[in-house]
Amino acid sequence: MASIPYFLFLKAIIPHLVIFAIYARLQEEGFLSLGCGRAPEWTYPDAWGIQWVSDSGYVSGGTTYNLPNDDAYLPRRTMRLFQGNQSKYCYNLSNNAVRLGAAFLLRVYIRPGQTPPYTPKSANGTMVFKLIVDANEWSTVSVAVNETYDNEAYVRSQGDFISVCLARSTPDGDAPFINTLELRPLPASFSSVQRMSSTNTILTEVQHYNMAPLEVSLISYPPDIADRYWRNIALDDNGPFYKINLSDIRNLTRPEDIDIAPSTLFQDSWKGSPYLSFYWTQLVPSFTFSMQFYFAEIDPQVNSTGARVFNIFINGLQETSFVGPVDVFAAVGANTPYMVSGGADSDQSGTLSVNLTPSVQSLFPSFLAGIEKFTPTRLEPLTSSHIVAAVEALKSALNLTSYTGDPCLPEGYGYEWMNCSSRDSVTAILLSNSRTGGIIPDEIRSLDTLLEIHLDGSDLQGPIPDLSALERLEILDLRNNRLTGPIPATLAALPNLQALYLQNNNLSGQIPPELLRRKQAYSLVFEYSGNQYLSAEVNQSSPFADSSSGSGSISQRTRTIIIVAALVCFVIIIVVLGIVLYVVCKYRAEKAGTKGESGNNLHATQHPPISTFQAVVQGPHKK
């Protein structure tokens, strides 16, 4: 007699042991749970076996706050607030499960508590800011005092880490904050994961619903090995439900049930009378959402094919993308999980209504155990790897490592000291008067689409690197630093360079002659004063040498004055000579006319007139 209870005990406990074993493997391969704003050494194993750690090793910057008089779950009783001026603040999530193409569930929890750390900008007391994952905008957070905001997304890794970022919604908007951040690996067998891969999307605004009485609490880990949060919809506790013991649900790892829904989801099913209806409002209008419906035929009276058959209607139309009509018993038999999935379009007002209607021949009403709704979003590719590598080198060399996440994307949320025209193009570095210190790394030449580099007043040291690859460069401003070494001759070969500012550094050696020639030809604005060890290739005794430079170089202003003065003098000489020539010629012409017409003129002289020239030659007459 004792063997029967023992056998029943094993039958009941083995499925749970299997689930725990699977979970332990998932924990080892990728569960990451961050308490935001916790001290670096903080850890917390919760009652469900999830190990929480501090977020300090995954993010730079921010201020930590405790939530006073808050009775929330312990890891959520602190926050990290980002009040700085960076365009975004990012968590780089990485562990041994994060690799190219792997799928994950991301979950954020945001709660300002009873006393938020700042006064919201909006008049209604709501704090609004952005969530970003990699190069995608994820969601807009809107949360008021003592309210809670949480959100899940399914994402695919594009490398060896995933960036989750928070940002102000406008430059002067509310400062973002966060309480907890979770990463959970998703099995590749999930239909939702396969759909992401085949359509090149991520799934945001993920929602999981348990069609159970209100008395049923949230389902998550350990029943759900992926730690999805299944919330019960606010159904009437006295409404019609099917119920069944957990031990009567069969193994959930069957190939037909590829999304491994938790067994407890199928203990209760909402029963129609005879149909079931529910709806969402304020969705994106005319948008196609992904939906998954979960069933298990747990009514013992349904024991044959055709006994319960129903169709799924979306906004009053039969949804042909779903398998239908639905006959769960015909598909998998009794007490066995079953899932159908497909697309569902919201109408022009942003409403999405669902109706499960039994067929005319059905003997039993429609029913439903659970439902999931996803918002597909195109997966935006990250900034090109060669640009990221160059920017990482620049960050390291210029002490800018607090900037994390994608340097260019999403559009409008790249690093504020860079201009990007696309994921493949950085057009400007804007760090004037930043006082970062450091050196200019050689890797900057990999940013071959640069048009402008402004590193003036950045307290930089070391040499100017070879920038010959930057053929599009138009402006290079390196003045007011502590740069040393020669001016690279390759700068003169940059075909589009229009302005080169090198004043007030410690540069030395000869100025490349071609730079001086381009300056003299007015094809380049070139300033280099304040470099006492710099010299130009001109004769130091030349009257054109610029004695004010302290380096034997000729200033552009002095050279211009000399050239203009010489031109003016030349013009004056030509004009004077022209006037003299004109007067002489006119005088001769007048004299010649006088000789031919002497009879007509009276002269009070005793001798014939003699020309001035003749008088000079002949001198006075001898007596």
From TrEMBL:
<keyword id="KW-0812">Transmembrane</keyword>
<keyword id="KW-0433">Leucine-rich repeat</keyword>
<dbReference type="InterPro" id="IPR024788">
    <property type="entry name" value="Malectin-like_Carb-bd_dom"/>
</dbReference>
<feature type="domain" description="Malectin-like">
    <location>
        <begin position="35"/>
        <end position="375"/>
    </location>
</feature>
<dbReference type="InterPro" id="IPR036257">
    <property type="entry name" value="Cyt_c_oxidase_su2_TM_sf"/>
</dbReference>
<dbReference type="InterPro" id="IPR032675">
    <property type="entry name" value="LRR_dom_sf"/>
</dbReference>
<keyword id="KW-0677">Repeat</keyword>
<dbReference type="GO" id="GO:0016020">
    <property type="term" value="C:membrane"/>
</dbReference>
<dbReference type="InterPro" id="IPR025875">
    <property type="entry name" value="Leu-rich_rpt_4"/>
</dbReference>
<feature type="transmembrane region" description="Helical">
    <location>
        <begin position="7"/>
        <end position="26"/>
    </location>
</feature>
<feature type="transmembrane region" description="Helical">
    <location>
        <begin position="561"/>
        <end position="585"/>
    </location>
</feature>
<protein>
    <recommendedName>
        <fullName>Malectin-like domain-containing protein</fullName>
    </recommendedName>
</protein>
<dbReference type="Pfam" id="PF12799">
    <property type="entry name" value="LRR_4"/>
</dbReference>
<keyword id="KW-0325">Glycoprotein</keyword>
<keyword id="KW-1133">Transmembrane helix</keyword>
<dbReference type="Pfam" id="PF12819">
    <property type="entry name" value="Malectin_like"/>
</dbReference>
<keyword id="KW-0732">Signal</keyword>
<keyword id="KW-0472">Membrane</keyword>
